[in-house]
């Protein structure tokens, strides 16, 4: 039985439909070639960008604040900056400067906003952050309450996350002063909203759901499918053994992975425990899978990429099982280390078209998928709507799928089979997205206001491209390119065209120009109708921070969020 509607109905992570405006946040920028001599030594990347703004097609009225610097395995440095105007950040505008081992700036990429001075609206008194948060709450489906988490011999109250940051936000061709509001809560219903509130009148100008729903001692447990798994536990020295893994990454005094259950009767979270080291009760099986699989995924990223925990900082991972609030039938990444999993249902959403499901933690690829939402948030923080949101989904899919393929020695490209009692069913198929109602070519892109612009549907296009890439260069190199691009090239609003170009640039960085890997990226995206732009025009020399210049630079900028992605026009800057 082929389930064409599952991808539309089941795998939506509590997305609420609303009227949204297609906003062009920033133009995509790719500058390649030697854009400075080996004299970059003052360490002031903002000064470099400011001095060369015109040559780099950047806005000379803006400033660029350094956010973070990473060094890849080749010794290249990647400096991520935030575009600012009048001391405030411009939402979605990030420039990444790439410096080679000779201390040359050889590539500049990112998304930037142009003509800021003429488009910025600075009139009107500002409302307070509290007033902005209150306005945001009234405009979305959001009810919050604190939760009590019982950890070993103590209880901790976790409050909802509600914060506001004043930024410039592009809306209807103008730059508005706006508060960017984050509203995150687990209880009484998981929700994570990004709301944009005009700072002069408290009017909500945009919004979208940001909820991305998939003393040491050894023990064992029985999973949902009846298989026995080895567990890393904590002996509490109190007659109980707890699902706390301190071996994978000793991030704090309690442990790297702490697995909880939601308790309906007391409306709180309780850490999973037993009087012995054998977790076999029926209510423990979903926790056994969640605890075990999160450990596998954590170890995979640590061993393959030297990446500690979901955010690279070694933070504690908090899987929550039996999460069945208000008929919740899904898996999701809430943020702050929380990954929630429902128990499954014999009649999901009371729909006769949907087959019975197991507990969602039974699927390793689903857990890998949710985990990578955390990785994406910590690296490039892809906005969870429209093309960047679909790309966000595809990255989670490719990592989750490959992790399961390698650990379980599987050969297919279906996602989520273990969630279903009948394992012939699945949510998506990366090899043939059309089997489950997804497009596999940019010409079939779905324009919709639902599901944050169809993030779970249009991801089929980039899923197909990444599948084709894996068949050409292998699973390992595909993940390596994706992780490299996430860390060093992708920005908040990277779209499909940007992903293709930047994965190509990643292949060029890792394997060299003209490599088989570069050709594989080109061919894979060409299959889905996205043509990688491999080069650009020659530009004039660029002045460096030390007063010299060099030549042989190429600029490429692409229109972003146009009406029809199949008709993207390339804009060249001479």
Silhouette? globular
Would you identify the regions where 5 or more consecutive residues have pLDDT less than 50? Answer: 1-25, 34-41, 250-255, 536-574
Task: Give the percentage of residues in beta strands.
Answer: 25-35%
What is the helical fraction, as a range of percent?
25-40%
CATH class of the largest domain: Alpha Beta
Radius of gyration: 24 Å
The biggest beta sheet, please? 8 strands, antiparallel
Question: Would you write up a description of this structure?
Answer:
The chain is globular, with a radius of gyration of 24 Å. With 574 residues, it is of the alpha+beta class. α9 (475-488) crosses α10 (496-511). It has eleven helices and 33 strands. A hairpin with a 5-residue loop joins β16 (228-235) and β17 (241-242). The protein is 26% helix and 28% strand. The chain folds into four domains: 26-112 and 539-574, 2-Layer Sandwich (TATA-Binding Protein); 121-209, Nuclear Transport Factor 2, Chain: A, CATH 3.10.450.40; 212-373, Elastase, domain 1 (Roll), CATH 3.10.170; 380-534, Orthogonal Bundle (Neutral Protease, domain 2).
What is the element layout, followed by pairings?
Blueprint: H1 6-9, E1 27-33, H2 45-51, E2 63-71, E3 77-85, E4 88-99, E5 105-112, H3 116-119, E6 120-121, H4 129-139, E7 144-145, E8 147-151, E9 154-158, E10 161-171, E11 174-185, E12 187-188, E13 191-198, E14 204-209, E15 216-222, E16 228-235, E17 241-242, E18 244-245, E19 257-258, E20 260-263, E21 268-271, E22 273-274, E23 278-279, H5 285-305, E24 318-321, E25 331-335, E26 338-341, H6 364-379, H7 386-408, E27 414-415, E28 428-429, H8 451-473, H9 475-488, H10 496-511, H11 516-527, E29 538-539, E30 542-543, E31 549-550, E32 553-558, E33 570-571
Helix pairs in contact: 5-6, 6-7, 7-8, 7-9, 8-9, 8-11, 9-10, 10-11
């Amino acid at each position: 039985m082929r389930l064409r509607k599952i991808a539309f109905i089941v795998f939506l992570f509590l997305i609420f439909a609303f009227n949204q405006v297609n906003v062009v946040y920033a133009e995509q920028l790719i500058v390649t070639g030697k854009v400075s001599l080996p004299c970059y030594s003052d360490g002031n990347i903002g000064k470099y960008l400011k001095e060369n703004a015109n040559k780099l097609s950047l806005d000379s009225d803006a400033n660029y604040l350094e956010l973070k610097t990473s060094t890849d395995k080749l010794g290249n440095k990647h400096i991520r900056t935030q575009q600012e105007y009048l001391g405030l950040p411009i939402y979605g505008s990030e420039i990444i400067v790439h410096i080679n081992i000779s201390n040359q700036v050889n590539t500049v990429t990112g998304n930037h906003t142009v003509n800021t001075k003429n488009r910025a609206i600075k009139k009107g008194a500002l409302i307070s952050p509290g007033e902005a948060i209150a306005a945001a709450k009234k405009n979305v489906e959001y009810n919050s309450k604190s939760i009590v988490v019982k950890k070993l011999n103590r209880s901790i109250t976790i409050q909802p996350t509600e914060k506001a940051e004043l930024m410039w936000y592009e809306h209807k061709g103008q730059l508005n002063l706006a508060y960017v509001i984050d509203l995150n809560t687990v209880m009484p219903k998981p929700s994570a909203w990004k709301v944009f509130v005009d700072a002069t009148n408290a009017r909500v100008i945009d919004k979208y759901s940001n909820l991305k729903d998939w003393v040491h001692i050894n023990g064992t447990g029985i999973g949902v499918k009846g298989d026995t798994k080895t567990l890393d536990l904590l002996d509490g020295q109190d007659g109980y053994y707890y699902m706390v893994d301190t071996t994978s990454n000793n991030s704090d005094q309690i442990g790297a992975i702490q697995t909880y259950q939601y308790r309906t009767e007391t409306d709180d979270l309780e850490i999973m425990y037993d009087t012995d080291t054998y977790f076999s009760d029926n209510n423990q099986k979903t926790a056994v899978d969640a605890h075990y699989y999160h450990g596998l995924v954590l170890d995979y990223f640590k061993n393959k990429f030297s990446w500690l925990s979901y955010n690279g900082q070694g933070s504690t991972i908090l899987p929550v099982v039996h999460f069945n609030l208000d008929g919740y039938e899904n898996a999701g990444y809430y943020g702050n280390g929380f990954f929630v999993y429902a128990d499954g249902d014999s009649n999901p959403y009371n729909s006769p078209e949907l087959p019975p499901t197991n507990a969602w933690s039974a699927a390793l690829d689903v857990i890998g998928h949710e985990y990578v939402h955390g990785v994406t948030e910590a690296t490039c923080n892809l906005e969870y709507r429209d093309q960047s949101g679909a790309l966000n989904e595809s990255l989670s899919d490719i990592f989750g799928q490959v992790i399961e393929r390698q650990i379980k020695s599987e050969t297919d490209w279906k996602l989520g089979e273990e969630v279903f009692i009948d394992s012939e069913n699945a949510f998506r198929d990366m090899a043939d997205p059309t089997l489950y109602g997804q497009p596999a070519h940019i010409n079939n892109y779905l324009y919709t206001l639902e599901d944050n612009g169809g993030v779970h549907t249009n991801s089929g296009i980039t899923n197909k491209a990444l599948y084709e890439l894996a068949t050409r260069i292998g699973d390992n190199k595909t993940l390596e390119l994706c992780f490299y691009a996430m860390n060093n090239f992708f920005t908040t609003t990277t779209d499909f065209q940007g992903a293709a170009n930047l994965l190509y640039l990643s292949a060029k960085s890792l394997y060299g120009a003209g490599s088989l890997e570069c050709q594989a990226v080109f061919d894979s995206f060409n299959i889905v109708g996205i043509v990688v732009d491999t080069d650009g025009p020659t530009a004039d020399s660029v002045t460096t921070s030390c007063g010299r210049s060099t030549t042989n630079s190429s600029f490429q900028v692409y229109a972003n969020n146009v009406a029809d992605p199949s008709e993207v026009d390339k804009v060249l800057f001479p």
